[in-house]
Amino acid sequence: MENTDLESLKTSALNAIAKASTMDEITLVRNEYLAKKSPLMALLGKMKDLDPSERAEYGARVNSAKGEISNALDAKVKILEAKELRAKLESEKIDLTLPGTSEEQGARNPFYVVKDEITEIFLGMGYEVAEGPEVESDHFNFELLNIPKDHPARDMQDSFYIDDNTLLRTHTSPVQARTMQAKKGQPIKVICPGKVYRRDDDDATHSHQFAQIEGLLIDKDVNLGHLKATLELFVKKMYGEKRQIRLRSSYFPFTEPSVEVDVSCAECGGKGCSVCKGTGWIEILGGGMVHPNVLTMSGYDPKVYQGFAFGIGIERVAMLRYGIEDIRRIYQNDLRFLDQFKKR
Asked: What architecture (CATH level 2) is domain 110-341?
């Protein structure tokens, strides 16, 4: 390359610039002809070997060639940039005559509407939210709740077992047991929302998976009147000031005494209709005073501390509130069903 003729080198560079059709090709041409180790720079380096009388003319000719190549490169860059801009504008062109698009407002599933509202009601009463694992041990799911291995109440909560000692929880009561173990004899005021699982037939009122919000309050001098007042306030906030509750004696292994809680029928005002099956009342939840055995197993002295617990089925509350006849509708994500709850 040392003997390369200057005019030939310039002509070669200008031809390469003319043929370049992209910015990448122009970069390659610039590197080939104007980089530090390019033939043109090598010709400039020869000036030190020339006679002083020849250097001025020789340098002027080389710099002139270099200037022509640089100017040609700059001009071609402007052309290619303009070309790329036109192509980009063409590809991103918007047809302003097309009709506009709009996003349809979705609707929240009534399950989440009810879950959040129940949670807010009890948070307003000073309760905290406690959560626990859905895959639970037999110890927390049954034994700490006064349901030993041979207890017949287990038949009503037959579940999905991982192994002989591990299962999908059948209620959120294990969260209460875990909270009691963690508090180590201190007062408790929590609600425990979450999914639970039981081996059950899927029909209009049952599902193998559903959700509960259970509540637990433990302190000194707690009695059944406190439970009744708490649930009465919940029902009035949830269903309206005119609704009444009644407590019926029942049985749960982990509470004593235990009660079923009914709410007055909104359809007939307590007079009796097809919705309440002529009774004027609809069962909504169960509860009771925490069994002394449960308190003792978790480190509480039942002579000092008492407590109450209750369990609310979220889907059941939603079904009663909105007149949903089939529990499966809540899980199917049918937009025709969900559209009814846009303004709720």
From this structure: 2-Layer Sandwich (3.30)
